[in-house]
Amino acid sequence: MPLMAVADALAAVLAGVEPLPEERVGLDDAHRRVLARDLPSRRTQPPVAMSAMDGYAVRAADIATIPARLHVIGEIAAGRPLARALQAGEALRIFTGGVVPDSADTVVIQEDTERDGDYVIVKEATAAGKNIRAAGVDFREGDVLLRAHSHLTDRHLSLAAGMNYPDLPVHRRPKVAVLATGDELVLPGTTPGPGQIILSNGYALRALARSEGAEAIDLGVVADTMDATTAAIRRARDSGADILVTTGGASVGDHDFVKRALDAEGVEIAFWRIALRPGKPMMHGRLGPMRVIGLPGNPVSSYICAFLFMVPLIRALSGREDVGHRVERALLGKDLASNQARQDYLRARLAHSADGLPTAMPVGHQDSSLLGNLAAAEALVVRAPFAPAARKGEPCDVIRFALS
């Protein structure tokens, strides 16, 4: 059976995906969540004209001739408006955020004035409207300022608060259950015995899921038996997981039970093995509403496949529209040989170049077990199947890893 192309595999993973149901959460819990509906403002900001500076609220006509001597009739601080209109020849001391009184149409900054008892001498003329934030200059009640599918940043939360929303309608977080398989795996902090290795995949995968706004569930490590693997798949289903991610056991060896256990539990396998390096023995299927991504056991293959397929799936379930990774142009930092039949994702460091494009330097060893090179990489250089040899300095496509 021919290997499935990467683009076709991603399309299969995302086929039929709908955003998860809506829920309301407080502003502090809405960071990096995805807005479920358009959000119109509940208020006008600012609601009335306010001073943008410390100074004096005056009528522009009264300071047309400089210097001008005006009678100071009171003071206005933020949150303490004064219900009195200015008359000819009058001024009000005003502070930033203070409500500009009726008939005042400009604010003279205090540096351009000199105080003389109950009078102020204005030494520089200020045009009408100067240093005043007009009512509604930021936004008005009913303005739709945040749209459905917005991935909420810290700045969005500030805006939502200013719009007078204490909580927001967002899509539920996807639940991602991560299951590691393998008799050889032991936890960090222990001393591996002969033939054993330290478990690393799960920590990266759960962190990657959380960085995309998902809730991560650790199903631990199961032994290489049919019963243990099947029981773990049932635990994932019973936990309400939207995505089950398995690592290891996806190949065809006598001790690889993941595919057999998934088949036994009724998982509809959409594909198994794709034209990808690293990560050929990857699978995808569904068990009712739960989507399953079976990752290879090698840590680099596991992470790259999760980055390319799990991340877009989490984003789609979260309600985002920008589910795919952004592909950028860069310049190769060294010569590359021609590619073979699988689409290749080379781990690379990035550096600035003189013409503005980053330079992508693939790490020296691309073996799918080398965690050090994965951790040092900042991006993936994408090479199409059967791509010809490329020379240093030629353009290439890269996908950056997130800083998190």
Structural account:
The longest helix is centred in the C-terminal third of the chain and has 20 residues, at 299-318. The protein has 404 residues and is α/β, with parallel strands linked by helices. The protein has four domains: 6-20 and 172-318, 3-Layer(aba) Sandwich (Molybdenum Cofactor Biosythetic Enzyme, Chain A); 22-45 and 138-171, Molybdopterin biosynthesis moea protein, domain 2 (Alpha-Beta Complex), CATH 3.90.105; 50-133, Molybdopterin biosynthesis moea protein, domain 3 (Molybdopterin biosynthesis moeA protein, domain 3, Beta Complex), CATH 2.170.190; 327-400, MoeA, C-terminal, domain IV (Beta-clip, Beta Barrel). Helices cover 19% and strands 30% of the residues. A hairpin with a 2-residue loop joins strand 8 and strand 9. The strands form seven sheets. A six-stranded mixed beta sheet has the order 7-4-6-5-9-8, with no helix packed on it. The protein has a six-stranded mixed beta sheet with strand order 16-13-17-21-20-18, sandwiched between helices. Helix 4 (226-238) packs across helix 5 (258-264). The chain has helices at 6-14, 154-162, 201-211, 226-238, 258-264, 299-318, 371-376; strands at residues 22-26, 39-40, 50-51, 55-58, 68-76, 90-94, 106-109, 113-116, 119-122, 132-133, 144-146, 167-171, 175-181, 185-186, 197-198, 215-222, 243-247, 268-272, 276-277, 283-287, 290-295, 327-332, 343-351, 359-362, 379-383, 395-400. The protein is elongated, with a radius of gyration of 31 Å. The protein contains seven helices and 26 strands.
